[in-house]
Design brief:
By secondary structure, the protein is α/β, with parallel strands linked by helices. 37% of the residues lie in helices and 23% in strands. The structure holds S-adenosylmethionine (SAM).
Length: 247
């Protein structure tokens, strides 16, 4: 099975539990739209494309807060959203999708880390935006899930970019309005709970083989030994974001 097919399967399995578990992604979506609105005061944001809408955490905010006239939605694995029946759905792998043109805004939260060639995707999104329009992007940085990295996990998303690196991929003619990064740790009662959280948010799709009981026991033992404190273990997200405007 290809890496993209594993990511697709993993997110499909996680969608039923995603909204209850994806607390950090919820904060990220809120932060992204808040920052966009802070910079794009008075801007026309009516023609919008969102990549990787998932269960629609960001989509719902877009519909609530922006004067949307046309909304194009893409995802590799998600079904159409009940609360957005009018949207133009463009399912499939964003890397092979033809994008709408003349957008006021291209936006994506917590998706770009899954893209093998983020430079090409950012250029294509930027090309799809009209002059004066906006790009709002969030992903995860190189220090994402440091606990899993320290334990030798090979399942990380392929494109963990720092905010600087992401901003460095903007084409000429774009003005960076804001970039940033902020670590957020969740705490779990055990390493198994942390693993369940990963499964429930669909983000363990890069694991290339199923674990044996022995793999699992060894992983949980090492996780607890290295990071356990007062009966809890942390799992640390590193969200990164940028807001930019086309000249
Ligand atoms: C962590 S979820 C984020 C969902 C939503 N944006 C949010 O903020 O909650 C990542 C989403 O990206 C989608 N995705 C991953 N790779 C993709 C690709 N190559 N093309 C389109 N969507 C993709 C997944 O199916 C999943 O729904």
């Amino acid at each position: 099975m290809s890496a993209a097919a594993r990511v697709q399967r993993s997110f499909r399995r996680g969608f039923a539990t995603y909204d209850d578990s994806a607390l950090v992604q919820k904060l990220i979506a809120r932060g992204l739209i808040r920052r966009l609105q802070r910079h794009a005061v008075g801007a026309r944001l009516a023609h919008v494309f969102e990549a990787g809408y998932g269960t629609g955490q960001l989509t719902r905010l877009l519909l609530q807060r922006l004067p949307i006239e046309a909304l194009h939605l893409n995802d590799l694995a998600a079904e159409p959203l009940a609360f957005a029946p009018e949207a133009d759905y463009r399912p499939g792998d964003i890397e092979f999708l033809s994008l709408p043109e003349d957008l006021d805004l291209a936006i994506s939260a917590s998706m770009i880390q899954w893209i093998a060639d983020p430079q090409t995707l950012i250029r294509r999104l930027c090309d799809a935006v009209r002059p004066g329009g906006w790009l709002a992007l969030s992903g995860f940085g190189p220090d994402h899930f440091p606990e899993l990295q320290a334990l030798g996990s090979q399942a990380a998303a392929p494109s963990l970019l720092s905010a600087d690196a992401m901003a460095g991929l903007l084409p000429t003619g774009w003005t960076l309005q804001e970039k940033g990064s902020r670590a957020r740790s969740l705490c779990f009662a055990s390493p198994c709970e942390a693993l369940r959280h990963l499964r429930d948010t669909g983000v363990n799709g890069r694991a290339s083989r199923p674990w044996t009981r022995r793999d699992l026991d060894a992983f949980c033992h090492d996780y607890d030994a290295q990071f356990g404190k007062a009966g809890r273990v942390p799992l640390t997200y590193q969200p990164v974001w940028l807001i930019a405007q086309k000249a």
